[in-house]
Structure formats: structure tokens, C-alpha cells
Amino acid sequence: METEKDLNEKILKITLKIKDQYPELSKYLEEMPVTIPDKKDPEITLKKLRTYYESLYSLLNKYILEQSVKND
Known about the structure:
Layout: H1 4-21, H2 26-31, H3 46-70
């Protein structure tokens, strides 16, 4: 099972990849759900971190797939 540290490292890695290799996607990072706790549920849970990572992963992979289709 992934730890909080593992998930944070994965989030950082994919965020840096997006910013470095796909800067055109950076604008979407600001629009994504933030992992900063809200007033109703102030705890950052593993589930929230995992969901955030999965949304980043999905954004990146969808974009890469769309670009490969356009280039074919």
C-alpha cells in the first residue's frame, strides 16, 4: 500500500513532468481540485492524494494519446 510520502513524491514527479515537458497543460493544474484541506473535511487523506494523483495521471495520458492521434 502506498504511503502519504509515496503519493506526494508521485504527485511532485508528474507535476514536474507536466510543467517541463508539456507546459501547455500547466493551465489545467490550477483548475484541478486542490489537495489543500477544506473547512468541512480538513484532513488530507491517502484517498484524496490518490485521487489527485490519478487526475494528474489521467490528464497527462489523455493529452499524450490525443497528440499521438493528431500526429498520425
